[in-house]
Amino acid sequence: MIGMSLLCDPALLIADEPTTALDVTVQAQIIDVLRTMRAESRMAIVLVSHDLGVVAGLADRILVMYAGRVVESASAALLLRHAEHPYTAALLKCVPSLLGPRLERMASIPGSPPAAAGIEVGCAFAPRCPRAQPRCQTERPLLRKASGPPHQVACHYPLSA
Ligand code: SF4
Fold it and tell me: Are strands 12-16 and 44-48 parallel, antiparallel or unpaired?
């Protein structure tokens, strides 16, 4: 499917979970093909993935979404080093590392995402967020500029606050 879509020489490729369920060797090959095609044809890519390791290998800019909304947006380099949103930080902690200490269990985010019907009020991540305060239950955080270079975060209590 990826090969067929690239045959059309698109200006924009939307790759929705293109490496899910593939082993890491094939994942790396797919990402390499996409990176080469992007460089050779100046094709733009929107990569949709739950895997921040895959995203880190390809993206210039990352938008983190939770419950259908963008909760953080920044350049890949900035976001991967200085996440401001608790959900982004939790996702990054879940990426396995060969360099860190050996863990008995891999990290995970407790709880479950909200139902598709969505959250009417407050922050959708509040039931799972270790930084949640009463304000988070009643007031939806809007995407706004974070400190430093171009970086936006939708959180009442971002990590640098
Ligand atoms: S707004 Fe509150 S609950 Fe939501 S991510 Fe920020 S600190 Fe956590």
Answer: parallel
Answer yes or no: is the C-beta of 157 below 6 A from any ligand 1 atom: yes
Q: Which residue has the tokens 């909200």?
A: 114
The CATH 3.40.50.300 portion of the chain extends over: 1-59
Q: What is the pLDDT of residue 118?
A: 65
In the chain, % of residues over pLDDT 70: 98
Q: How far apart are CA 73 and CA 55, in angstroms?
A: 13
The residues that bridge with 65 in the sheet, in sequence order, are 70
Q: Which CATH architecture has domain 1-59?
A: 3-Layer(aba) Sandwich (3.40)
Determine the residue type at 150. Answer: P
Distance 157 CA to ligand 1 centre (A): 6
Q: Using a 6 Å cutoff on CB, does residue 124 contact ligand 1? A: no
pTM of the shown model: 0.88
